[in-house]
# Entry
Amino acid sequence: MPGIKVYIVLAFAAVAGICILIMLGGFVCFMEAAKAIPDWPTNFGGIAPPSEPGAFVEYLHRVGAVIVGLLIIALAVTGLRRFRSHPWLLVPPLLSLVLLAVVSTIGALVVLGSVSPAIAAVDLACALMVLALMVTAALAARFQRRHPEGTARLAFRDSFSRLALVSGVALYVVLFTGLSVGNPSPGNCLGLPLWGGPPPAAGGLEWLRTGHLMLSGAAVILVAFTAAASWIKRRMERTQLLLANGAGVLLVVSLAAGELAAAAGFPWALMAVRVCAATLLWAVFTALIVREGLQAAVS
# Structure
């Protein structure tokens, strides 16, 4: 298929780029550096990187957003030129451009004014969805290259693939809603909620944090059960087994780093581990879901 190799390279580059971008966004959050650079889109009126740690991370976050945007634009153009008849190659980059516009707008509002925790949660939800869309595009393109006679599509036909899908939805909701629950704290940044974190905010939000903790517990159980079930349902499929159990390991790392960070007063090193593990957990679990859907579609 003409252009499919270029598409695959661009898609996987976009996956790597958006992973790094989400991690940097998490660093900005727990370092409380969202306003470390007072202007937007310039940097203290120029383009040179600042020296202060928080401002430098925010600078890298902005540069990363530009690079990811250019990659997704290139991917969208390739899809429009080459793959208009293949929805899973055409739609994800186009939808990602819309979501990136939302993320950029919210980023500007944070710097130039202020946003509510709910809007911050929307920002993270969009970023995580862009990552999921890029993973989908990358894996669908690989599938399409191996099956040029057909059209890639997703179908969740057996119990394990549906379990992975439900677990992924629960994980997604827990990851982005943490910003809007409880008192402002580094522990509210990207990751599963902290059982040893700060108390909930006053004003009737106790029930919201309790519900979030319950949903988090359900998501943890679902992800862990998916990893365990893979040894029964997918023990002969090496990639699926690796993805499911890799997600389980990342889940444990994210939870452990978060609880240790809360106990130690949120040191940057542990918070960085937590944010990186949570980002990779979402990327790996999305890859598991997409592969399950693609494989079920041809079984």
Remarks:
- The chain has two domains: 1-153, 155-299.
- Residues 155-299 form one domain.
- The helical segments are 4-30, 53-82, 87-112, 117-146, 159-177, 206-233, 238-263, 268-298.
- DSSP finds eight helices and no strands in the chain.
